[in-house]
Design goal:
Order of helices and strands: HHHHHEEHHHHHHHHHH
Number of strands: 2
Distance between the termini: 34 Å
Number of helices: 15
Strand order of the largest sheet: 1-2
Oligomer: single chain
Shape: globular
Largest sheet: 2 strands, antiparallel
Length: 418
Amino acid sequence: MIRHAILAAGLVLSSASQLRIPGLPLGPGEACLFLWLGLSAARIMAGAGSHYTPAFARFALFWTVFAFALSVGAFVGFVIKDHPDTASMLHDTIAYLLMAAMTCLALATVDAEIGFRRIGWLLVVFGNAVLAPQIAMGWDAFSLSSIEPWYWDRFRGWSENPNQLALYCAILAPVSIYLAMSARGAGRIVGLAGALLPLIAGRMTKSDTFLVATVIAGTLFALLRLRTWLTAPECRFGLRYAFALLLVAGSVPLAISLAPHGMAAVDEAEVFAKGLAKDKGGDASVRTAALRLQLWGQAVRRGLESGAVGFGPGPHVERSDVLSHEVFPTPFEAHSTILDVFTQGGLLAVLALLWLVGSTLALALRARFDALAAMVAAIAVFSVSHFIIRHPIVWFALAFCAAVGVSALRPAPIGKRS
C-alpha cells in the first residue's frame, strides 16, 4: 500500500514543475518516482517475485524497439551533425529510461485487478487534493512567493505551463469516471466527484487542445455507452436499453427534421467554439497555429534528411520565423509527438508508438472500458500538437489501460467457467 501511495504521489506531483529545485529537472514528483523505482527493484531482488503478463510483454517489446530506433538515430546524428546538442539528448534519454522502468516495473509488480485499481483511486484522491489548493491560488484565496499560478491570462497552477496541467486533467477525469463506473455504492459518487476539479482546472487553462480532447473523448464515451446499453446482455430489456433503443430509432427522423437548421447551427457552433478557445480564437490562437505549422514542416524535412531514421533523442527543428529566437531556445521541438518521435527515432519509432497506443485502445474497446477508451482518445488528441511522451502520467495511463484490459479479457480458470 505504501509503495502504491508513493507512485500515485509521484504521478500527481510530476506535473508540479514549479516545485522543482531551481536549475535542476528534479522535484517532489521525480523524487517519489525514483523512490518507488528503488523500492520496487529491491522488492524483486528480495524475492517478492514478479509476474509476466501480456501487458508487460507488450510494453517491454515497445521499449526495446523504441530504444533500438533511438540508438540508430543517435548514431546518425553524431555522424551528420557537427555539434549535436548532447545536453538535450541526455535529458530525453534519462526521461525515456525513467518512463520505461516505471511502466515495466509497474506491470511486473502490481496486480492488475487490485493493485492498479488501488493506485488509480489514490491518484484520484491525491490529484484532487493537489488541484484544490492550485485552483484556490488561482482564485486568489492565498499565494506562495515561489509560485505563479497564472501564465498571462491562462491558469497553470503549479505547472510550468498551462498545457502541462491541461494534459494531466484530461487524463485524471476519465480515470475517475472509469473507477466510478466499476465501483459500487458510495464509490460511484466519489469517482464521479473526482472528475469535477480536473474538468474545472482544465477549462481554466484555456487550452484549445483540452477543449478539443474533451469534446472528442466525451462524444466517443457517449457512443460507447450507447453501444454497451444496446448489446450488453445484462442491460437487455431494462430502462437503459429502452432509452438507447428510442434514441437510435429517433435519430434518423430527428436528423431529417433538423437538416434545414444545420447551417445556422454550424455557424453558431463556430462562434461558441471560438468563445471557448484561447483569446476567443483571436491573435493568440492564430500565432500558435502558425508557429506549430511551421515547426511541423521543419520536422518533416529534418526527419527525411536523416533517411527516416532520426537523429536520436533531443530537439532537432532548427528555426522558426513566426517567433523570435529570443523567445525560445534553439533547436526547437516540433510540439507534435509523432513528428518529434520521427525526428528522433525515425519511422520505426513512430510505427512502434502507433502500434502501442492503437493496441491499447483496442484492448479498452474489447473489454468495454468506455471511459478508458475515451482517455486514450484524449491522449491521442494531445499528441497531435504536444510532445507528451516524457510525462509520467501518460505512461501510467497507458499501462493502467493495458493492465486492466488484459486482465478483463483473460480467460477464466477452467474451474470457474460456467
